[in-house]
Batch of 2 targets.
Target 1
Amino acid sequence: MIFEQVANGGCQSYLVGCSDSCVAALIDPEVRKIDRYRALAAQHGVRIQYIIDTHTHADHFSASKQMSETLGVPVIAHRLSPAPYVDLRVDEGDVIKIGSLRLTVLHTPGHTRDSMSLVASDRVFTGDALLIGATGRTDLPSGDPDELYDSLFGKILKLEPNMRIYPAHVYKGAACSTIEEETRSNPRLQKRERAEFVEMMRTLSLSMPEHLTEALRVNMSGGVSVAQLLSEAAAEVPFMSMDEVKSRVAAGANDFIVLDVRERDSFDAGHIPTAKHLPRGLLELKVNEALPDPTVRIVTYCDYGKISTLAAATLRRMGFTRAVALDGGMKVWREKNFPIESQA
Ligand SMILES: [Fe+2]
């Protein structure tokens, strides 16, 4: 059995596969690790056959949709998953075949209603139902402590005691545990009566995960995060260094346009000499009058280098094939004491 555990902060994802059939499945992939997963699959000589999400994640950005599109393979999730891009919806007792490897679906709601655990011969991927020394929280959308009680005490803890547990999160300590070990030492599992377990889960005061609303929006809809939008735009444009822009401006180069895409107030307060002003919000509407020559070289800039990257990518898509973005923004330009012109 091929097995790789990939950590991204506390989030865990897994590549599991069959070396005889050269196929694998990826469990709970995260966007920032896409290259790592692909490299691991290549290293093991396996084709990723399925992408599986154990549940709708609220705390990380799932790479499932993106990987499924680039690899041309189905996304598997529980039938209650709200994500519209799920190709294969599974339910309690279904078996996912990956060569000679078998993953049996256990519906283990409570953390979310679409949570499932995947049982292999000697290990179980518990998603956020059972964690090491903890359990998934039940206070996020579709969470329910009563359901988690049933999932844990009625299903997961009834698996073989020596079965290993691989959860979707490991915040500290060992990267895996066993059913026996958790039953014995996991503090939350010591509350064995339903009422006391539910009461404990209801009174945990946990801080909300970072990016909660954005992660839920992206994972439930298959849309993109702001970071993803920016990195896609950055991959589509070249950049120009500040020194290069400064010397071209100083030399009075007339073969390129410095384009300030910030709001009017910022432009008036100080801009790169010779810069033309066209705010990002009006770019598409005013582009024809502001930039009549599509062959001109354009360098966009803003305060931090993000909006200018989006603007350069938009310009390229519209046919300004020589548009680039400033590597950095006005904030650093000022810090460097580079020349500034103001409207006053
Ligand atoms: Fe989760």
Target 2
Amino acid sequence: MAAGQRVCATAEIGTEEARRFTIDGIDVAVVRASDGSLHALADTCSHEEVSLSDGFVEGCALECIGHGSAFDLVTGAPNVPPATEPVAVYALTVEEDSVWVDTSTVLNQTASTS
Ligand code: FES
């Protein structure tokens, strides 16, 4: 069985879509990039209290609707200010057409998980 918690079926996240889930009390944005890959990021922007899942997916980045910083879906790093700190990227696995996210496994260890 996959690690973490099942959050949804893979079909529930369309290409270049982001959805917010709360897993173990942590808000997580589950995102499908333009290449079809799935990613899980901390949902709160590292700049201000804005939900990243309300933003726009562009290629392999999620753009914050607050002030336009776009976070890389693999590294969690913003491309331009005003955000300067990465957001956490969590382990995500697909098993039997379900998406599982493990918030206890942060893939970019330098990121803040708050
Ligand atoms: S709140 Fe996200 S860039 Fe400002």
